[in-house]
Amino acid sequence: MINPIYSPLENRYTNGMRYRRCGKSGILLPEVSLGLWHNFGDVDLFSNSQRMAHYAFDHGITHFDLANNYGPSFGSAEETFGQIMKKSFAPYRDELLISTKAGHDMWEGPYGCMGSRKHLISSLNQSLKRMQLEYVDIFYSHRYDPTTPLEETLQALVDIVRQGKALYIGISKYPKEAAEVAYRYLREHDVPCLIYQGRYNIFDQEVQTSGILEQAKEAGAGCIAFSPLAQGLLTNRYLNGVPKDSRIARGGFLKKEQLTDEVLRKIRALDVIATEREQTLAEMALAWLLKDDSVASVIIGSSSVEQMQDNLKGLSNIQFSTEELERIKAVLQEKI
Ligand SMILES: NC(=O)c1ccc[n+]([C@@H]2O[C@H](COP(=O)([O-])OP(=O)(O)OC[C@H]3O[C@@H](n4cnc5c(N)ncnc54)[C@H](OP(=O)(O)O)[C@@H]3O)[C@@H](O)[C@H]2O)c1
Known about the structure:
With 336 residues, the protein is α/β, with parallel strands linked by helices. It is built from twelve helices and ten strands.
């Protein structure tokens, strides 16, 4: 069958998406971004990955978040995205904000992970080839590496921008002290850090409680939340058991052991609050993050277009009453 030529919806910037400034930069991020950690690998159906990417762009999602090792197999999500670039998105490159990362396990041997200049620069060169891109918009140090001098990592990031291989720099999961050094070093080298990427959701509020959100704000960096649905726990996915096609059943980073009776009780209680708000739990979980304007965007994952439809509906009501917020807190403390 001949592939139909993709042409994005003409109303993609007026059909519901809002954009927020990322820190003190010139960049506007869609409130919802799409992450390619799962469901875009070579084990997945290309047609489904492509459908989700098209649906995203058609609904104003301009930001696609990748990393060198997303798949499985490692590198294959970038290859899938490269195919989508070639087949569909090439004419729209300047409408897209594409990020990738290096730092976690990627290839064999001593240079295949962590924060050395060798790893970061070699990895980005590979990523650009896989994605069929000349540059990425954001390149991240995927994690803090305590075994490499931080200045080496940061100078490599500065040089990557100078080489034109990335327009902006981000840091991911850096502890507060290392983030402070990074913000200062990058600013002093005229490559201010655009963005901090951290796990943030109703169940895991550490970036907020540890002051990382506030610190990013003071440094002029935006904050983007990953795993906003706690990998699917904060949705209706596990309310009635573990579906065969779910992330838990497929085995991976979300383990069955994480779905304890206590977690399930909390999910059910949060679902009651969501229903009263006339939202699904997924919609409420995203809205809960977006109520705070120090969150520039949430990076969702999804395994189907239907999930994306559900998630984007969450944007329509991001206001919470004090009572609702108190009830959510009480659920987390099991005071319900
Ligand atoms: N910087 C880092 O270290 C780091 C780490 C992790 C993630 N990330 C980024 O963050 C992105 C998102 O992470 P994530 O995939 O964990 O995000 P998530 O949004 O918390 O979880 C996504 C999963 O939740 C389920 N889901 C989504 N919407 C649903 C809905 N409406 N109803 C029912 N189930 C729904 C799907 O699971 P099923 O597969 O079961 O359908 C989906 O794959 C990644 O792709 C990556 O870009 C970054």
